[in-house]
Design a protein that fits this description.
Belongs to the BlaI transcriptional regulatory family. This is Transcriptional regulator. The chain has six helices and two strands; from the N terminus they run αααββααα. The protein is mainly alpha-helical and 128 residues long. It has two domains: 4-76, Arc Repressor Mutant, subunit A; 95-128, no CATH class. Strands 1-2 form a two-stranded antiparallel ribbon. Helix 2 (28-36) packs across helix 3 (43-56). The mean pLDDT is 91.
């Protein structure tokens, strides 16, 4: 898989990657039909985006048959980490704690989520 430091997927490209990460591999039509459940997008737009993503190295295309099959060429977790670090750096001045405080202060957090957060905090404290 490609190094995520050299790629910067757009919001639309991330939506397509999400479909491919969930499905493993898919045709343009399958990706397009999945995207239609959440937004209005034309088939040719999806096709063009996936062609561009192939050129950028975000996806790989198997064109050995008439119907091209695409799969993600970047790792989901690495991409999420890269995008999150970029987001924290650009919007929160590099402060992870500011991001967490903002997220917890503005949303309804379930008791289960608080338990998960506490578990992560406890693990982080043990590392020190």
């Amino acid at each position: 898989m490609q190094d995520t430091k050299s790629i910067k997927p757009t919001e639309s490209e991330l939506e397509i990657l999400q479909v491919l990460w969930n499905k493993g591999k898919a045709t343009v039509r399958e990706v397009h039909e999945t995207l239609l459940t959440v937004k209005d997008v034309g088939y040719t737009t999806t096709l063009k985006l996936m062609q561009i993503m192939n050129e950028k190295g975000l996806v790989k295309r198997n064109d050995s048959s008439r119907t091209h099959i695409y799969k993600a060429a970047v790792n989901k977790e690495s991409t999420q980490q890269f995008m999150l670090n970029k987001f924290i750096s650009n919007l929160f001045g590099g402060s992870s704690s500011q991001l967490v405080l903002q997220a917890l202060g503005n949303n309804n957090v379930t008791p289960e989520e608080l338990d998960q957060i506490q578990l992560v905090l406890d693990q982080l404290k043990k590392k020190d």
